[in-house]
Automatic annotation (TrEMBL):
Name the UniProt record assigns to this protein: ABC transporter related protein
Pfam families, A to Z: ABC_tran
Lineage per the UniProt record: Archaea, Thermoproteota, Thermoprotei, Sulfolobales, Sulfolobaceae
PROSITE patterns listed in its UniProt record: ABC_TRANSPORTER_2
Record-linked InterPro entries: AAA+_ATPase (IPR003593), ABC_transporter-like_ATP-bd (IPR003439), ABC_Transporter_VariousFunc (IPR051782), P-loop_NTPase (IPR027417)
Keywords: ATP-binding, Nucleotide-binding, Transport
Gene Ontology MF terms in the entry: ATP binding; ATP hydrolysis activity
Keyword match ATP-binding: yes
ABC transporter domain: residues covered: 2-224
């Protein structure tokens, strides 16, 4: 869906993307994760055809997005806030888009519980409803791919959960997502793949399970015999749990072989992996 190879962007002699490479697989929900200023928005603008790259190769749905506006027929982009005339009413806005793309917007308005807001101006909407309008607007063109830059940044916790429920629903219907966010606890429940970026460089790109399970991640284990387990796997005790660096399967096998019973085991959260890959 998206192929980025050795992408660089220099702003006024300041390199903000340095040989960035990653892929977004068809059918995935790929999280794009990095601290402030890492280069997420710059990358998303280049992928969306809004900003020119300095060098490297970018392909979205097989085309270079800068030279080929046709990409927009099957890709939608969502930002933190709506960039549209604020005085326009919800129904007018969606109806006009429906005309452009030859799609009946009313079913989508009903599916997303927006019928009631049809006469509200875009400027009068709460952030959660405005984001729902953006999603419906994105869906009107039947996209294969939705690229979203911090889509939940302005939303309260329940609107964020609602947003990610919709992402899951649409993904199960075949829509691929590339979503940048800082709110990792929520991303963790929905993403299948992650791309970590830090200071304009990719520090990890791959399946989330592999990111959470690589050697060097923290594992927390609760066992029936702490002293024996410490001798086998090492680590330190924290809040009753043994905290150890390693790989879940490895630790389970070693404890099992020695007859130590595991009551609970959990690996690092995406938050902890993020800290590791971003060096914070
Ligand atoms: N138009 C611009 N001109 C010059 N420098 C810019 C411009 N836009 C962004 N930058 C710089 O590029 C770097 C990357 O910014 P970018 O907005 O892509 O990061 P980000 O990961 O999206 O961060 P945030 O999460 O804070 O939005 C930053 O150092 C930023 O100051």
């Amino acid at each position: 869906m998206i192929r980025v190879e050795n992408l660089s962007k220099i702003y006024d002699r300041n390199p903000v993307l340095r040989s960035v490479s990653f892929n977004v697989d068809k059918g995935s929900v790929t999280g794009f994760i990095g601290p402030n200023g890492a280069g997420k928005t710059t990358t998303i603008k280049i992928i969306s055809g809004l900003l020119r790259k300095t060098s490297g190769k970018v392909e979205v749905l097989g085309e270079d997005p800068w030279n080929n506006p046709r990409v927009y027929e099957r890709m939608s982009v969502i930002f933190t806030t709506i960039y549209h005339p604020k005085e326009v009413k919800v129904e007018e806005y969606l109806r006009d888009l429906g005309k452009v793309y030859g799609k009946d917007y009313r079913d989508l308005m009903a599916e997303f519980d927006l019928t009631h807001y049809g006469r509200s101006k875009l400027s009068q909407l709460s952030s959660g409803i405005a984001q729902r309008v953006q999603l419906v607007a994105a869906l009107i063109r039947d996209p294969l791919l939705i690229v979203a830059d911090e889509p939940t940044a302005n939303l309260d916790p329940s609107a964020r959960l609602e947003f990610y429920d919709v992402v899951k629903r649409l993904n199960s219907r075949g829509v691929t997502f590339f979503i940048s966010s800082h709110i990792l606890s929520e991303l963790e429940k929905v993403v299948t793949h992650v791309v970590f970026i830090n200071q304009g460089r990719i520090s990890y790109s791959g399946k989330i399970n592999e990111a959470l399970d690589v050697q060097g991640n923290l594992i927390y284990v609760l066992v029936n015999d702490v002293d024996k387990a410490l001798k086998i796997i090492g680590g330190t005790v924290e809040g009753g749990f043994i905290k150890v660096i390693g790989n879940v399967r490895d630790i389970v096998e070693r404890l099992d072989e020695e007859g130590v019973q595991i009551i609970s085991i959990r690996r690092s959260s995406l938050d902890e992996v993020f800290k590791k890959f971003s060096g914070v």
